[in-house]
Amino acid sequence: MTPQHTTAAAVAVGDPVLQTVGVTKSFSGVRALEGVDFELRAGEIHTLVGENGAGKSTLIKVLTGVYTPDGGEVRYAGETVHFRRPADAQHAGISTIYQEVNLVPLLSVARNIFLGREPRRFGLIDVGAMNKRARELMAELGIDIDVTAELGRLGLGSQQMVALARAMSVDSRVVIMDEPTSSLESAEVETLFRVARGLRDRGVGLVFVSHRLDELWELCDRVTILRDGQWVHTGPMAQTTRLELVSKMLGRDVDEVRAGGATEFGASHRQSGEPALVVSGLDVANRLHGVDLTVHPGEVVGLAGLLGSGRSETVKAVYGALKARSGEVSVAGRKVRTGSVRGALASGVALLSEDRKAEGIVPDLSVRDNIALAVLPRMSRAGVVSEARIDALVDTFMKRLRIKASSPDQKVRELSGGNQQKVLIARWLATEPTVFLLDEPTRGIDVGAKAEVQALIDELAEQGLAVVLISSEMDELVEGADRIVVLHDGHVQAELDSTDLSSSELLAALAGDRAADPQAPIETEGQHA
Amino acid sequence: MSTTTADPATSNAPEAALANRARFASLVQRQGALAIFVVVVAVASVSFDTFASRGNLTGIAVQASFLAMLALGMTFVIMTGGIDLSVGSVFALGGVLAAWGSQHGTLVAFVLPLAVCGAIGLVQGLVIARGGLPPFIVTLAGLLFARGLLLLLSDEGATTYKVPRGSSFRELAQGELLGVPYPVILVVVFFAIGALVLHRTSYGASVLAIGGQEDAADLMGLPVQRTKVLTYVASALLAGFGGVMIASYTSSGVTILGVGTELEAIAAVVLGGTLLTGGAGTVLGTLVGVLLLQVIKNVINQVGSLDSDWQSVVSGTILLLVVTLQRFLTRVERR
Ligand SMILES: Nc1ncnc2c1ncn2[C@@H]1O[C@H](COP(=O)(O)OP(=O)(O)OP(=O)(O)O)[C@@H](O)[C@H]1O
Ligand SMILES: [Mg+2]
Fold it and tell me: To test the ligand 1 pocket, which listed residue (A416, A419, A422, A443) has its Cβ within 8 A of the most ligand atoms?
């Protein structure tokens, strides 16, 4: 570990290390934070909770010098500080993983981990030592990747682990993680938790943000809840029930917050008629080896598997975004040319992709235009677009998904992370596809909107849409899907009926833990009722 | 169904194969210009007896050395995701200042042009980095400014300052060491330093990070503004030094030099495999790009019947070919 040169005094475990007092921040007149008090103590894991757009990321950016607060102050180790840029906060000993994976895709993994603090020899970067340290760090995290490979070639999950390695590689007093688990599988989440607990035990203060609420009780000591840019509550995690948390976060009575299942998905759907999507022998060089998949209208089929099992690749290949070496895809009985996105779109296939930042969102267009983008051809007559119809459509989706924006004309770039996701979901939902491929549709969005998206998927399936659902949240798969196809190394390994399946059984199946749980209702292909 | 225990060896094999293929594709991308360069040189050596002569090859190397200096600075600028249109004018200005300065001593011939050109680079860098203005516009203004200053100094180009006979300043570009002209040695040294700076210093790492993803570089705490300012200063200094070299070589401050040279420098950088969007590339690739352009000029001069205007036609065609090839390869690679 490189020694940290900080001027701030040492902080005893349990004492405040990083604080805001009455912090206010507005963006062109819109209040993002309003008099927020926040206190992080040394040796605790503190979670920031709130709906999409509540101001969590903004608070983190104020704490770390990305934004200068309009009012109020930031204190670090008991002293008022004015970080003018992220570098200032880092040099003071605050390590941050920002919400969007913020690394440089064209540089190698090792470079990304050590950018700005590379190991030196004779004043020059010691590439050998850098790669070696990077390899050690990744090994510690249990991630087996080539550290000299370009970062951009890795999946989002691996990229998040690289960001974690970067945060770990310095000796920090405060580590802040804004939704670090959104693209991680349970194994990686476990690793991250282990690392986080290790840091806490060494007296480091940690801030943790996640919309996967269950994680919070597992990891965090205290919670601060924000709503609409205002502080609502701070307290020990153990004394806060899920119901309380959600009700405070949404600003509704406890009774109003239903305590139903873990998700908003309803019962299984009736499936009818000819299959809407038939995939046979889909083969993508090095990734997929003969994947078969059949989805009927009104059916939700889940794809499960570990990192690198080929789930995203399967839907991408069906959508034509990945070139298939062999295999056939047909929609509603008609063959679709593989490897052509236009062909897939024309036959009614839509894909909500995993990497929404890279594929889809147009940051400088307005919310309205982003939603309308895909439906424009349908909404226009003789080239003339019906503005009124688009406005109506945009309005419906903004209400339904509770997209928090100052107006439909706000640039998507300015929305909070979760609200950007909602805009993309709205865009694809608006196209009314025949086959909808959803890759992690609820990633990064808050409980309220999650329920809404789940209900929407359900509703669309009721109306006869064929859905393929990928999710790393087991509850979502088990409750949302009628059938679950388990992938392993690009093969279909098993097909499970989800009716009587529990999340833990699915997890066990994924881990290949059949011997340990012989009762697990695993059926091989074609045997399900 | 196959066994469920993941075998690390088999699960990694496809990853490794993929990485190898990607490596190969990016190798071809980076060395595309080198391949064409080798072919052109081979064909030229066979076709013209005069081409491979020591005299001709030395001539090519010296002729290329001036553009090489500009292209080296341009490489760093482009890697940060920027562009520097001012270098052609700054190059000419440096030459005129050096020639004028040499009348007051060799030291002045070095210091004066570098100070003025460095100042131009500094202002451009500050406006781009601090003010956040687009490099295209700022350096376009720099182009006009430097050219205007040059015309003022030389009575609208009518006065050509001469380097005094017997001045040691002439040695810089006309002298040689063990038969190798100094300009060639300087280029080799500068490019070696450039490569070292790019790959082995934190400044170089910042350059690549900024070009790759500027927001991320900022969030990672890299000195984004300082790096950009330094890069534009370096570019202007190298252009100015190119001017100093050519003043020494021609023993005068030629005022009509450098028109469109910034575009040649950009062409050389892109030929050398540096992404025009920034974030990736090599210094040595740029050197190959410069040499390729120079060899094409030379070959067309050798064909007596061809007008020298064909130089641009051929260079342009090759540039288009290489860029198309690069794009095609990156696409294959991303699949
Ligand atoms: N650069 C900006 N310009 C304008 N408005 C902004 C900007 N950044 C944030 N906002 C607004 O500030 C509010 C808070 O956003 P913030 O990103 O802090 O939310 P969040 O709690 O992190 O949400 P999420 O869970 O979706 O990440 C949002 O309404 C957002 O639109
Ligand atoms: Mg956020």
Answer: A416
Q: What is the CATH number of the domain that holds B323?
A: 1.10.3470
Q: For A124, which of B22, B200, B218 is closest by C-beta distance? A: B200
Chain A residues whose beta carbon lies within 8 Å of the beta carbon of residue B24: none
CA–centroid distance, A452 to ligand 2, in Å, is: 19
Give the Cα separation of B323 and B314 in Å (integer): 14
Taking only residues 144 to 183 of chain A, the set having a beta carbon closer than 8 angstroms to any beta carbon of chain B reads: 144-146, 149-150, 153, 166
ipTM, two decimals, is 0.83
The domain in which residue B304 lies consists of: 26-334
Ligand nearest to the backbone CA of A412: 1
Let me know if residue B90 belongs to a domain: yes
Domain A262-348+433-529 = CATH 3.20.20.70: no
Interface test with B, best of A64, A83, A91, A104 (most B CBs within 10 A): A104
Distances in Å between the Cα of A306 and the Cα atoms of A349, A472, A474, A491, A519 are: 25, 9, 12, 12, 21
Q: Which residue of A has its CA nearest to B193?
A: A124
Confidence tier at B152 by pLDDT (50, 70, 90): very high
pTM: 0.80
Query: What is the position in ligand 1's atom list of the atom closest to the CA of A404?
Result: 29
- Length of chain A in residues, anyone? 529
Which span out of A12-16, A132-136, A150-154, A288-292 was modeled with the highest average pLDDT? A132-136
Could you tell me which of B88, B159, B151, B78 has the C-alpha nearest to residue B117? B88
Dump strand ranges (E) for A306-363.
326-331, 334-336, 349-352
Checking if the pLDDT of B325 tops 60, the result is yes
Closest C-alpha to ligand 1, atom 6:
A414
Asked if residue B230 is part of any domain, the answer here is yes
Contact B2 A85 (CB under 8 A): no
CB B88 within 8 A of CB B261: yes
Q: Is the residue at B2 inside a domain?
A: no
Residues of chain A with CATH 3.40.50.300: 16-250, 262-348+433-529
Distance CA A511, CA A282 (A): 24
Q: What SS3 string covers B158-222?
A: CCCCECCCCCHHHHHHHCEECCEEHHHHHHHHHHHHHHHHHHHCHHHHHHHHHHHCHHHHHHCCC
d(CA B38, CA A356): 43
Q: Which residues line ligand 1 (CB under 6 A)?
A: A 27, 30, 32, 50, 52-58, 99, 404, 414-419
User: Which residue's CA is minimally distant from atom 1 of ligand 1?
Assistant: A414
Q: What are phi and psi of A26, to 5 degrees?
A: -120, 150
CATH number corresponding to A16-250 = 3.40.50.300
